[in-house]
User: Fold this.
Amino acid sequence: MVDQENRPTTVEAVSASSGQAHGPTPAEDNDPEWPSPVVGPSRPRLFSVLGPGLVTGASDDDPSGIATYSQVGAQFGYGLSWSLVVTYPLMVAMQMISARLGRTTGHGLAGVLRLYCPSWLLSAMVVLLLVANIVNLGADLGAMADALNLLLPSGRVLYVLLFAAVAISMQLFLQYTRYVAVLKWLTLVLFAYFAALACVRVDWWTLGRQLVWPDWHSTHTAGYWTALVAILGTTISPYLFFWQASEEVEDMHVYPRRVNLVDAPAQGKNALKRIRIDTLVGMAFSNLVALAILVTTAATLNVHGVTDIQTSAQAAEALRPIAGRFASLIFTLGIVGTGLLAVPVLAGSAAYAVGEARQWPTGLERRPKEAQAFYATLVLATLVGMILNFAPIDPIKALFWSAVLNGVVAVPVMVVMMIVASRADIMGRFVIRGLLKWLGWAATLMMAGVVAGMLWSFGG
Assistant:
């Protein structure tokens, strides 16, 4: 979070936005929002442009998400594949709005809510996010341990402790720029699911038909609406909103030329272009991976009558006799790799939300001694999630219902985001409008409608 007293003045902002600040630092030379004096503005630098959006999108395919897509593919075949096409523009819109909130105001999402919303609303949003994140985090740690235990049987408890320690260490001891680089490289693990897809025989005609025209008769199937909420909850998750907005603020420390767009509107064109590319690519990558997982399990498990898959590790094990050891191996390794990416994001987004709401010094670019409460929250969230794996809670149910909980929590968060991003007194000339605003409200209404449909199906 950018403290108010550290925000540049308008004069400083104009100077920075015109490129007349003091000599650029190495970080400034590499800022994807500014043309490089070495390579020129026309040379593509896609990997450098990709940042918060790519990491956010990749972390969306966490072990909980993999379990959800595997369950849906095994139970419904290709029947819910259309949802990943429909959700793409909607999740792009919501993540783009999150990023714009952070880049425009210089505050993370919780920081914006603290400044412009009632305190009771802020507290409710933060508590809901914290509960959802901890449940999700615990489910992910358990899924990673189960997956690794398939490859190296040594005890689930040991692996839960190991992964929790690795996640905490990454955030405590890695310098921010190096930490982000590690997260970006970890996104390559997700290519494992494209390799797994290449190992199976897909009914492309049926898949193509289901992608563009859902089978409405299946909407009466038991569990259909719950599965749909789980898909939406793991593709449009509230923790992703908080993370991407806060990472935009973090990057403003890494690249000192960047100034809040409210104070430096001249930076808006390049900033919004970078956010647009980053988010479009990151969310496309996320949904393509999700589709690969769903199709892989639909083409193997569902076709062979294996419809009761409860966890991502079960999916990997069930693939072995059907799709071969190689497909099972890379599916399992993908679970571990995506968990290493997602667990720090879950814990970090919770710490950002609590820290910004409480006006603590926050940010992974700070040293632990400079933001003790922020890092304590991060560690505590991870530890509580770890402890859930030793409580008398069914890990199978926790994994699926964490996605459902995310879907329910997302609705009020999305409503508040849309209202805040539409206020000119907060966003200035960068208030959302046009297609972006329509898509944002469409995503919000669709999420609310599907949650209502799920609750109605429970009553029926």
Notes: The mean pLDDT is 81. The chain has 21 helices and no strands. The CA atoms of residues 93 and 440 lie 6 Å apart.
